[in-house]
């Protein structure tokens, strides 16, 4: 039995990289898609998770399947199609000295692509941990959930990509400890 199963998109985000000459644009392949990003967080937090979706029967689809497997995500529900191609998305970013402040966590933002997905993964992890219906949560538990999820999201923006940027549970615990919140 799985803790969480997600149905939806799985894609390749091609994110812009900074070039020394500032005249050419290069892109790096990053696996992602909101459901897969959320599942990656949960898998890194030792949850049993499964993805259901469809990709093209192409090299990108094969790559994405391997990324999910390597991330600890079960892929029994991943289907391949000769009728469609794997979705590719291209993003251009301003590369400056941007900082993001999330509830007192000041972090150097590299790529905010998966921040919301990281936050949701943190919330779901805590729901599973508490084993209680949301209506029965205490205020202190809701505050702890929000702080934990915010920490996950804060760490996710410090790296490039969707799936590759998701932090481990140890990284989240370390930041909470350093900030005196654990």
Automatic annotation (TrEMBL):
Q: Which Gene3D superfamilies match?
A: 3.40.1190.20
**InterPro entries cross-referenced by the UniProt entry:** Carboh/pur_kinase_PfkB_CS (IPR002173), PfkB_Carbo_kinase (IPR050306), PfkB_dom (IPR011611), Ribokinase-like (IPR029056)
Q: Which domain of life is it from?
A: Bacteria
Which Pfam families does the record cross-reference, listed alphabetically? PfkB (PF00294)
Q: Name one GO molecular function term.
A: ATP binding
Q: Does the keyword Nucleotide-binding apply?
A: yes
Carbohydrate kinase PfkB domain location is: 2-90, 95-168
Keywords from UniProt, A to Z, are: ATP-binding, Kinase, Nucleotide-binding, Transferase
Give the family this protein belongs to, as stated in its UniProt record. Answer: Belongs to the carbohydrate kinase PfkB family.
Name used for this protein in its record? PfkB family carbohydrate kinase
């Amino acid at each position: 039995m799985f803790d969480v199963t997600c149905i939806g998109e799985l894609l390749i985000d091609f994110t812009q990289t900074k070039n020394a000459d500032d005249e050419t644009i290069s892109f790096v392949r990053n696996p992602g898609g909101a459901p897969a990003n959320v599942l990656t967080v949960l898998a890194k937090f030792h949850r049993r998770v499964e993805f259901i979706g469809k990709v093209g029967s192409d090299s990108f689809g094969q790559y994405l399947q391997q990324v999910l497997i390597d991330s600890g995500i079960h892929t029994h529900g991943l289907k391949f199609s000769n009728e469609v191609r794997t979705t590719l998305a291209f993003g251009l970013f301003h590369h400056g000295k941007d900082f993001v402040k999330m509830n007192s966590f000041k972090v150097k933002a590299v790529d905010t692509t998966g921040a919301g997905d990281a936050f949701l993964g943190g919330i779901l992890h805590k729901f599973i941990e508490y084993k209680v219906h949301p209506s029965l949560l205490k205020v202190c538990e809701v505050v702890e959930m929000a702080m934990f999820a915010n920490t996950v999201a804060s760490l996710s923006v410090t790296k490039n990509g969707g799936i590759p940027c998701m932090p481990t549970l140890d990284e989240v615990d370390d930041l909470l400890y350093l900030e005196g919140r654990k």
